[in-house]
Amino acid sequence: MKTLNLLVGLGMTVGATVQAQNNKPALVDAPVDAIYVPSGFDDNDNVEVVIHGTFPDGCHRVGTATAEVDQAKRRVTISATSVVEQDEYCVQSLTPFIQAVPLGQLEEGSYQVVYAKNPEVLESISVARRKTESPDDYLFATVENAYIDVNRETGKQSLKLQGHFPHYFIGCMVIREVRVVRDPVDVLVVQPIAELVTTDVCASQPADRSFDYTVGLQEPFQGEGLIHVRTINGTSLNRFINIP
């Protein structure tokens, strides 16, 4: 292991610990500058947070991210690495990235979440007492993509959800309601509530069970943030957004 000075961005130099030999990919501390903390987790959920940063060039990519939980001190410490390809030339392009970090099940209470390599990058998360024994309060749809569409003429924004419903031998899954909560201010927490039905609706679904669902946003989103979509079986879909 040795320390190298990496030239990043517009001539800016930073120190980073690198593991590399024979031009193999190197590991450096991830340039994390924010932690997104979705709301609504209970003490029987698999809690997760999402880290955000910006790669300085095209040779960087997402590595691994882990969390160390100190239940007694109510503190969560995030560690993350980036993989750097040891090429002679890298495209100088600033590229935002996000990465979900699973925390597992946490006891009820408030926690401080901090990035190990930069204590100034921190947030807080609150875990509520469970309402049901199930990890989810509802059956959620299998969303595979999410983004905000902006009407250039009116400026109105719509949330677009895309995916494929699971195949059932009897009946089918449909989306009954999509709840969108902005909490905290830079995170849209989306609950695509679904149910199983045995009606004529099933016959009208595409053969591949694909869906494209749109819901209007009452409050427009501006700036950088996260779309956090709860999906089936306690999992989630996360998408970074940046709307001028």
3D architecture notes:
- With 244 residues, this protein is an all-beta fold.
- It folds into two domains: 2-127, no CATH class; 139-243.
- The protein has one helix at residues 201-204; strands at 2-8, 12-18, 26-29, 32-36, 47-55, 60-70, 75-84, 95-104, 109-115, 118-127, 139-140, 143-150, 157-164, 172-182, 187-197, 210-216, 223-230, 236-243.
- Strands 3, 6, 7, 9 and 10 form a five-stranded mixed β-sheet that branches. Strands 11, 14, 15, 17 and 18 form a five-stranded mixed β-sheet that branches. It has a three-stranded antiparallel β-sheet with strand order 4-5-8, with no helix packed on it.
- The chain starts with a strand and ends with a strand.
Any chance you could write out the topology, listing elements then pairs?
Elements: E1 2-8, E2 12-18, E3 26-29, E4 32-36, E5 47-55, E6 60-70, E7 75-84, E8 95-104, E9 109-115, E10 118-127, E11 139-140, E12 143-150, E13 157-164, E14 172-182, E15 187-197, H1 201-204, E16 210-216, E17 223-230, E18 236-243
Parallel strand pairs: 7-9, 15-17
Antiparallel strand pairs: 1-2, 3-7, 4-5, 5-8, 6-7, 9-10, 11-15, 12-13, 13-16, 14-15, 17-18
